[in-house]
Every structure is written in C-alpha cells, then in structure tokens.
Amino acid sequence: MGRSISSPALTLRRSGEIAWVPIALSALAIAFPRTAPVDLAAGLFLFLVLPVLVPGRLGRPWTLSAAAAFFLFACGATLFYQPGASLDLFEDGQILAPADIYLDGGRPYVDTHPVHGWGADGGLDAFFFRVFGATLETFRIRRAGMTALALVALAAAAGALFEEMTWGGVALLAALGLCPFVSERQTLAFATLFLLLLGARSGRRGWFAAAGALGACQLFYSLDLGLVVLAGGLFGVATRPFLASGLRRPGSGPRDALAFLGGALAASLPFLGLLARTGSLRPFLHVSFREIPRTIGDVWGLPAGSAEKVLRDPDPRRVVLEIVAGPSMPSLFLLLLLALAVAVLLLRSALGKFDGADGRAWISVAIAAIAFRGILGRRMPVRFESVPSYESPLHQAEVIAHLEREQPPLAVLASGTGRDSFDGVSSRERAPRVAAYLDATYEPCGEIQGRKIGRRRANLETTCPRSP
C-alpha cells in the first residue's frame, strides 16, 4: 500500500505478467527465420513498453505456460525436422515399408510384422499419406511434429509435478539431463503421465479416465510404452491414496484405478474392433504377446534376468567390474536413483508427511519402475561395440565367456566377406575364436541385407528374422 508503481517488486511482477509475449515471439523467430529480426525486436519492445502503457493485467495464468509450450515446440520442430537428411534404411524402413503395404490394402499383423507397434510402424504414416500424399516430406514433417510434441508433453508432465513453474523447469532439465533425446514414440506416454498428474492434483477421476484412454492409444501406437504407462499408471493411481493415509487404508485408490481402467477399455474398443473386422485381432495378440517376447526376450524381459547372471558369477572381481564399468553402468545409476526415490516416499508415508507433491511423484516413480524392465534388459551381451575392439586372444576369450553366460538367442554370424570387415580385414579373420564359437553354437536361419543370422542351437523355437 502506498508504494510507487516503479518499485522493484511491482516492476518485477509486471515483467513476469508480460513474459509470455517475448517467449511467444521468440518461438515465432525460431519457426520462421526470415522474420526473426522483426519478431525479436517486437518482443523486446512490447516487453519494455506494455507494463507502462497498460495498467491492467497483462496475461492470464495459462498464458505463460502456453507460450513456453509453443517455444519448446518451435525449438523441437526446428531441431528434428531435417529435410536434407538421408534415409536410414533400417529405422525409417521399419516405418515406410509397412505404411506402403497399408496403402495397398494390407492388414496389420497379417501382412506386416510391427515390432514397435501398429501406429509407430507405419500405421499412422499410412493415414497421413492418404490425407497429405505419400511423400518423404509428409513423413519427415509428421515425425518432427510428433517428436516436438513429445518434448512439450514431457515439459507439461514436469510442470504438473510441482506447484511452482520454476521447479517444473528444473524437473524438465533433470529429465533431459538423464535422457537428452526424446522420441516420437514417447509423445502419448508423456501426455498420459501429464493427465495422471492432473488427476492426482485435482482429485477428479475424469482426468484418470482420460489418462487411461490416452494410455490405450499409446498401447496401439507403441506397444511396449503403452504397457509401461498402463501398468505403472494403474499401480500408481491405485496405491497413492494408501500411501497418503500413512499405509492404513486404501482410500479412493480402487475407484481411481477403476476410472483409469474404464478409460483404457473404452479407448481400446475401436482399435480392437478394427482389428477384428480385418481379421487381424488374433494375429495382433499372437505377434505382440508371443512372437515378439520370444524373439526379443532381452527387450521384454525383467531386469532381474541380466542382474542375476552378473551376480551369479563366481569371481567377485568380475562382479564388481561389471557393476562399475560394464555396459549396465548407466542403468545402475538410474536404478539407484529410483530406489532412493521409492525409499524417501515410503518413509514420508510412514511418518505421515506424504502430501500432494509426493502423490504425484509416486505415480511418476511407479511408471519409471515399470519402464526399467527394458532399460536393464537391453544391455549388450558383451562390452565391446565392434569386432576390432576384441581382436586380442584375451578379449576374444572374454567375449566367448560373456556369450556363454548371456546366451543371446540370435547372433550375426561372421561371413568372411567384405560385408563384415574393417579396413579390408573380415571379422572371421580378425576374431577367429569368436567366429568358431558362433559356428559351433549357432545355426544359420535367416538373412538380413546379406548378413547371416544365426539361431542358438539350444533354443530352436526362437523365430528367426528375415529381410522384408
């Protein structure tokens, strides 16, 4: 009361109200470089002048968040849209080849074999091709847009985790610090997490139902991530009130979980109906829940599988070396961080200090814990990334020992030709002991782009991949 309008505190508050204007104009400058000087000059001018000329409110509570989302989308779209980039015959081929089949009337899981999911492996692109034309430009714009939306959805989830936007920004930076690359396949998963956190914040079950519906869409778009958000979200939603009560009563957990499941079921019906109408429902279930887990066991398996093989090693020195310097070291750090978060949340619950922010954190931790089933399972069976790295007899013996311990169901066999050579020396010549082990342990069962794929002789039920 009685302070001048030019007081530092009031000036800072007024500047905060107008911050959305330069942020939005900066996003326009990024999205449209030709008008960038005008956009930036206008943003600076309005930021300095509007607080003086306009006496009333300069924005709504949502304007800053909307401007920040627009800015992140512009940054992401500019970063991920690469019109001059060459096609990746493997990664892009897994999308474009099924999309072309769908355009010709092919049926999912009957005429195609989606590994990531129906939508991610060509289904969504086939829809966009029908609407906008089957061109590489359509594919690149769709992929860049969805990847940029994944960044926005991650930021929204980080913002919903805390009451203050500043801490949400810190959470976003921490998430990008641990995993700096977002993927188009994560868009709906992050959006599902955002809706779950809104439900936990507001207590409205409608948000939980909407989250379940979006999680179901993620299931049919990218199967593994859909299973992660549905399983983790269900567990987090069902147990959050129990922890909030100090581990005494279930509270609203069962009703919240029922709303989440109801939304997922309602959103699944159209997809299941379409699959049934095209005769693809049974193949969808068979491929997704039998063939893929059997063929790519390390991707779908529990992390305890890899950890068990490491800890059962009779030499404690090798156990320590594997934990400290092995290929699973980055996952170990994340696992310890996740375990610490769980311990802190359980302790706060036992002490009766479990509040709203803790409940939202618990849902996030539950989803992260489910996701870890793949992070540790995807570790390589050996620590070397290329054959020349294990050329010495000692390292070849290490590779053989690791392969014998891990027993991967499939392996790329040495051909003895230029298809698998470095500096003109084939892998068979460079690592003859490993080549002999592969010949004795694996039998050729398929070929992908000229490279022979071997199936472990003791695991002949494994489905062998082949070139499309």
Describe this structure in words.
This protein is mainly alpha-helical and 468 residues long. It has 3 domains: 8-68, no CATH class; 93-375, no CATH class; 391-456, no CATH class. The chain is 66% helix and 4% strand. The protein is built from 21 helices and 5 strands. Strand 4 (442-448) and strand 5 (451-456) form a beta hairpin. Helix 4 (63-80) runs antiparallel to helix 7 and helix 7 (136-161) runs parallel beside helix 9 (187-202). The longest helix is centred in the first third of the chain and has 26 residues, at 136-161. It is globular and about 80 Å long. The N and C termini lie far apart (75 Å).
TL;DR of this structure?
The chain folds into three domains: about 10-70, no CATH class; about 95-375, no CATH class; about 390-455, no CATH class. Helix content is about 65%, strand content about 5%. The chain contains 21 helices and five strands.
The end-to-end span amounts to 75 Å
Structural class: mainly alpha
Strand line-up in the sheet with most strands: 1-5-4
Low-confidence stretches: 1-6, 297-305, 375-379
Mean pLDDT: 81
Task: Please describe the topology of this protein.
Blueprint: H1 8-17, H2 20-31, H3 36-53, H4 63-80, H5 93-103, H6 119-132, H7 136-161, H8 165-178, H9 187-202, H10 205-221, H11 223-244, H12 253-277, H13 281-295, H14 297-300, H15 303-311, H16 316-325, H17 329-350, H18 356-375, H19 393-406, E1 410-412, E2 421-422, E3 425-426, H20 427-430, H21 432-441, E4 442-448, E5 451-456
Helix pairs in contact: 2-3, 2-4, 4-7, 5-6, 7-8, 7-9, 9-10, 9-11, 9-18, 10-11, 10-12, 11-12, 11-18, 17-18
